[in-house]
Design a protein that fits this description.
A two-stranded parallel sheet has the order 1-2. The chain has helices at 37-46, 55-66; strands at residues 16-17, 53-54. The protein is mainly alpha-helical. The protein is flat. 30% of the residues lie in helices and 5% in strands. The protein has one domain (2-66).
Length: 73
């Protein structure tokens, strides 16, 4: 993408604290997701552990890194 003067940055966060799973009861009745329901629920539950980072902190730190002249690869 450099030819077009576009820089691509891959951000891969681990756990970010959020309330996305606060109303989680069950997956929608979509067959596509049904085999992964338990895995998705575990992931949602793990988001709010002691190792998770608040969304505001993640956003602030990510933006600070991305706007550098030479952000990390």
């Amino acid at each position: 993408m450099r030819h077009f003067r576009i820089d691509v940055i891959n951000v891969v966060p681990e756990a970010i604290t959020s309330n996305i799973g606060s109303n989680y009861n069950r997956m929608p009745e979509w067959k596509l997701y049904k085999p992964f329901e338990e895995l998705i629920k575990e992931r949602i539950d793990s988001m709010n552990t002691l190792k998770s980072i608040p969304a505001e902190v993640f956003t602030k730190d990510t933006v600070a890194m991305v706007i550098k002249n030479n952000p990390p690869a």
